[in-house]
Amino acid sequence: MTTVPAFANCHSHVFHRALRGRVTGADSFWTWRDQMYALAAVLDPDLLFDLARATYAEMHLAGIRSVGEFHYLHHGPDGQPYDDPNAMGEALIAAAREAGVRIALLDTCYLAAGFGLSTSSRSREVEGVQRRFSDGDADSWATRVEDLARKHAGEDDVVIGAAIHSVRAVPRDQLPTVAFAFPFAPLHVHVSEQPAENDECLAATGLTPVALLGEAGAWTPRTTAVHATHLTPDDIATLGDARAYACFCPTTEAELADGIGPSVALREAGARLTLGSDSNTVIDMFAEARAVEMHQRLASGVRGAWTAEQLWQAAGATGHGSLGFAAGDPIEVGESVRTAGADELLWAASAEDVVGDRGDVAHRLAAAIDACWSRT
To answer: What is the distance between the alpha carbons of residues 133 and 75, in angstroms, rounded to a whole number?
Structure first.
């Protein structure tokens, strides 16, 4: 066995795990989202706990010791808060604890269904399942999250952070409230994942998503731009000047046909790379790390833009830091047909090579996922 740094999974939507391997009939991100919304509509705190506990156990077996959970499924099916307004977040925290994974609960502000139809119109109201995501306005969101942060203050396995779902989901005038609500906590935001997002933002505001978030004061060294796939040179410079993190999720970005992000340009500008499993179509940080280099090769036609050392740093210490955690104890990787003869495990190993007791995790995952789909 070989000892290697423990992984940080910096961007997870844990309930998406129930979509893995299912035929959605989706031909783009937007049609895939319809299937994801159908799943989001049926979850309650108990079922979310069961699904999350099994999924976080899968992450633990893959060598992940910190997860950044981008959490926006807040309220009941009709949009009304549970008796405990943070019941869904508490379910995620309890699930991570049982699985032995530290959690940065990135409580996500989600208030709108999209931009208005013109620069003079207001953001569109949330609709359908999106009502579960919304607190009504950014001040109400901050009040709810403040209660959660106060409850978990000082705990070494929980960080309560903030997130802006996207520029289409938080109106322009409310972005600063989210950006400054928790000035010492991690702040994460989906940004420029899709060309359509950029086009709509430009049409509605005259700015790119990165520039609009810059206007709101969102870019600091504690901020993570998630995906950051379709950026202009000015966008890249903005993220680099802020020393922001850029979280790439290559297996999800490939699965959803999102595109290949400018990882090298961001690094050279001063941004810091982290990695995430996002939709949890794959939970394997070796695969995510390798894919950064492999996708760069496909885009550039040149090998060797990322060294193993740089990718270990992104998948480990830098990632933990972006979530507010220290790196923690290392993990062990065993010899297998994949790793035999390898000079560098990063290029050869998979999650299956991480040493751990797999027990009944597969059974618990199957049971939780079956329970989800039986409700749809």
So the answer is: 7
For tokens 């795990």, the residue is 17
Which residues in 174-249 belong to E strands, given as ranges? 187-191, 223-227, 245-248
Q: Which of 227, 230, 295, 320 is catalytic?
A: 227
| CB atoms inside a 10 Å sphere around CB 219 | 25
At 193, list the tokens.
Answer: 């994942």
- Residue in 217, 314, 192, 327 with CA at minimum distance from that of residue 264: 314
Q: Which residues pair with 70 in a beta bridge?
A: 106
Mean pLDDT of 187-201: 96
Say whether pLDDT at 121 is over 60: no
SS (H, E, C) 292-316: HHHHHHHHHCCCCCCCHHHHHHHHC
3-class secondary structure, 170? coil
Interval 234-268: pLDDT, tens: 999 999 999 999 999 999 999 889 999 999 999 99
135 given a catalytic annotation: no
- Using CA atoms, how far apart are residues 149 and 154, in angstroms rounded to an integer? 9
What is the pairing mode between strands 64-71 and 102-109? parallel
Tokens of 357: 């007791």
Distance CA 182, CA 35 (A): 33
Question: Confidence band (pLDDT; 50, 70, 90) for 352?
Answer: very high
Model pLDDT, residue 29: 78
Amino acid present at 266: L
Residues with Cβ within 8 Å of residue 118, at least 6 apart in sequence: 204
Domains by residue range for the chain, with CATH: 2-374 (3.20.20.140)
Catalytic residue among 50, 107, 258, 278: 278
* The token pair that represents 107 in the structure block: 């409580």
278 annotated active-site: yes
Residue 119: pLDDT band with limits 50, 70, 90 = low
- Spatial CB neighbours of 218, under 8 Å, sequence gap ≥ 6: 164, 175, 178, 179, 187, 189
Q: What is the pLDDT of residue 250?
A: 98
